[in-house]
Amino acid sequence: MAKLDWPGAWPELTVALLGPQTVSSTLVGLSVWAHLAECVGEDSKDLTAARRRDISHGLTLHFKEPPEAPAFVASLQKALHAFGGDRRVVREVIQLCRALPHAVPMKLLLANHFDKIVQVGLQSSDLSEFALTSLAEWVQHLHPSRGNKEAASAGPATHDMCRFTEMVARLVENCKFDVDDPQSYSSHQQIGRLLSDLCTFNAASLSAMPSKELSGIWEALMQLLRYPAAAVQLDALTGLVALARPSRTEAQPWPTATAATWVSGPRLEELIGVLHVLTLKNTTSATSFSSEHSSWLLRCLGSVSTRQNPGSFSEWCQWMAVSASFEILETDFSGQQMQSQRLGMLKVHSKELLSELCRPSPSQSSGGFGAICRLAGGLLARALAGDAENMAGDSDARGGIEWVAECDSAMSLVESAALAALKSAEKEGSKEMLEAVLQPLQVFLQQVYVQRGFNPAMEYRRLEFLSACSPFYKLWSEEVLRDALARVLAPIRLEPSLRDARAKGIKLEQRALDTLVSISKSGVLKAAHLEALNAECLDLAAKVSSAAGRSKLTEALTLAVASCSELDRPRKVQLIEGILEQVTTAWRSSELVQSASAQALLDVVASAASSSPAILGVEEDLGGLGKLKDIKTMLSTFSGAVSRASTEALEPHLADGIIADWAPGIFQLLQALCHLYVFAAGTSDHTVRILVLTPCRTEIDAMTGRAMSPEEEEDLAKEFSGGLDPRWAASIRVNLYELRSHVAKAARACMASGRFWDGEGSAKASEWLQNTAKLLPALRPHVAELLLKEIFQPLVRVPPMLNDPRIASVSKTFIPTLCVAISALLKEFWGLEHSVRKTTTRAVPDAVPDPLPRFSKLEPSHAASVISFTRTSCYLMSAFVGTDLPLSSQLEDPAQKFLQKRPAPVAATPSRKRQKNRNKNRFSALEEDVGEEKNEQNAMQTEPATVARRPALVSVILRDQQLREGLRCFLADLLLIPDPDTVTRALVGLSTFSAQLWNMIVHGEDLSTLSLGRESTRTPEVGEILHTASDVLRAVPQGVLAPVSRLVARPVSEQISQKLTESLLEGIIRHPWNSFAAATWIDAKRCPSTLVCECTFPTFTSLMVLVRLFKLQCRKLELSAEAAQLYLCPSLVEALRIIAELPNTSQDDVDMLLTTMLDEGKGTTKDLQRGTLRALLFEASPAFAEDHEDQERLKATRKWLVSQTTCIAPIHRGNAVDAW
């Protein structure tokens, strides 16, 4: 009741709660104040913005008056003095401290020393968790409106901020890892996250603090960085990055001397040493470290945050493993995968930190990059000299792998900072700064070249570093480039070294070719270099051990030619055609390409099955398998070379002629591969049937997302070998899978050419894409997903293709076919009754019966591929309506433009002829005064657009009524699939759909008449906007709001289709969906589920679109926008009716929602409006009441409260309390 009436209508409550005399009344008062403060920041459908402002103002006022002793502070001190010995009172006070920042500025809380109350809780074991939760809430509200001058002036005083940060930093002193006390780990992790959030949310204010306090924060973060737990280390790195980022601004490059000390000197050396140890690989085998090596790593690590010092580095690694086990509750990942993930995250955060620290400063032209290179060079030299015998011998020997890991870590430190330092130096434009970056890196490169015998693992890492240095070769001398090229090609020349590397599982040849591609891509090679490189590569082509290697070599040459600035375009075209001439001739003469039929492919598979060699590898390239490999190699060479011959999609392509020769055969072969499943399902040859229809191990690993164990692979190979040698059958399947992948990638490379979409090519492209879309229902889900990703997704992910009007015109023909084909597959997989409108008259084949035999061992991979295909389809279709565009859900507000002050009329010379005054119809949206129209038009032209224009593809789709309605129905149908990722993406797509429709209307793009390429040359008039909006937005209530509302209110028993009952697919999705739809609990309160939160956005966007239409109608008729005028907007009335039909929703709730969304007063934000809507949807969801009995009790309680509303008058307050 205080939420509704205090303080204006119930001032007596203040006196009653501020003057308690007993423990029980004190507890009640503290609880009331805490809940009252929390309600300001909570989602509530019965609290308007004005009420929230009143409550916040009332609480804040008691912290200010009287100035000498604020009433609230005095009352709290009195209560603690009288009942501070009662732990319940202290707990309630700490809970109050956690809630107060929602309503009271942190400036007042810190000024009145509320942090000392929290500090008392930190010293108590049973209250420390509550105190840490309060501090976590405080750090988010210290500066809630960063960047706002008014909010900055209302921030805490400097001395209060220093006291608060010092208290938080002191908490880290007790964070000592104890392997025998696992309970303490959670509190240590909570403290680490608290300090990280403090730095992240308040970095700008912290960087301006005095050096002593700032230094204390840096030291606390460094102490957490030495804590043996990956989660705590990541929090520390996050805080360090946040502090380092604002340390340099244009106005104040170095606000304190503390940040500058980290660029050079002992502090940076200390940091580099810790990062060097944390990013080491292969620490699981730390038992093989020698004592000297172990002591060296511990010395780099420094003073660790543990109860007892580790006796060896292996013990430190064991503690890291123990802390990792604390975090693992239920997971599908193996320990090795989790370790790789943590290592990757540590490297990413380390790279961000070093990138910030190496920027130039006023005192040092190169920032800290020179010092980083020097320190990393020392670590590299120590690693190279640490164990020369092992480095020169077997890398698997004791200590060999570990020293290679140290070399890798040292190189990674420089790689992380090099590119950022180069960009900063080039931005400054100073030769001194640029030289200060180039010279240290060149010195470090010479240290990398140092060899102590041949080690394949070390050579592989050197080649990676040479690839990372590609942007620097154009700035160094030609001698450096020549030396680098010689070292890149050396492993290929030394055949024994390649055999040694292959024996150890190291692809040294492939790495050398990738490095050559990277150097060629940088554009550093000149015409003179190309001649020598071409001759060198011709000699090396015979030494390359694999067809894939020769393809990579061709790709490197093509890229070098395309990137050479000294060659003119005709010469580049001539060279590229010469490089690809041999493979193009072979492609034209291939029998498979000439026939391009599924039956021919089936015959090749049968030939490969019948020619199984006695010894694998002896005649493996002969017969049918050899033909498959040849086609695969040619496609790989074509894709690699063509993709490198142009820097950007749809630009004039150097290989346009080659693409024109290859494209017909590529798409014919692609369609033949799509038909292959149907032909194999009908063949009488059991061996061929099982070879084609059963996926290979690579496919199964990709579908399930995990590597198959050797035992599983052996069982699968025996069962699905078809009477052949299991390894030979697996080889045939792998080649078929790779052939499909290479054909799809080659088709994607063709589509990146501008000539592919020009003239006659446009008609062929339309036919090819439509035929490909028609064949999707005949494919397995993982193969269909491959085609979606490689062929159709680039249309929405590559900006030039998204904005090309030629592609947009072609999309009208294949998108309807694609939509219906995908819908047929989803209906079959999920058992849905789809409502996708068939927007094309062309026949689309029905989904054929699933040709894959339903073997139990393949069911998990099939179920996983269904889920993955569904998510990919949802991503693609939602992208067609503009989901991936920046600010895709932001709405234009034309009413703001009409509210601008109209310019004064120009004084004209009075005419002697008396003009007749025209009657003005103020109640018509289509008959406006000409003068007013011109003023409104001029006002709108001065208003800049806040939302970017849509690309051509999205515009074409949204302008075509059948296309946009088909996509909207498709997205609405996806809401019936019980997969959290799919539903979330579909909801975002529906939200974008409503927003983009409104923005196109406001921009004057008449969705019913405009054609492709035609833009409005003038600003739309009010009548035009109202006319178009009334017509187009009629689909929003039933097309967007209705399916979203049904999703929110859908009972638990109906959320999963009956067809999926007791299937493996249901077992996979059941637990994630239940978690997605279940209510969340925060501080012992039931809060909206993730599903409700996601449904809030499309519902809010759709309602806001209709509300803005309603406001515009009212403003045009000079009426106030209120509920009495709703007859002007039937679409809004229908939308509100849909909301009112939700469970547990009354008409009062709908009226309150409408009032909140129409409110334009100060303090009414979109977050508040969304919060009101979210609370309404939450009460309508099944998660609000766990069972039917709870819902019935809730209805009865609501009915009783409505009947007792007359008792809520202030004069009957006591009766109302008794009734409650």
Automatic annotation (TrEMBL):
* Region of interest (Disordered), residue spans: 900-944
- Residue ranges annotated as compositionally biased, kind Basic residues, are 911-921
Q: What is this protein called?
A: HEAT repeat-containing protein 1
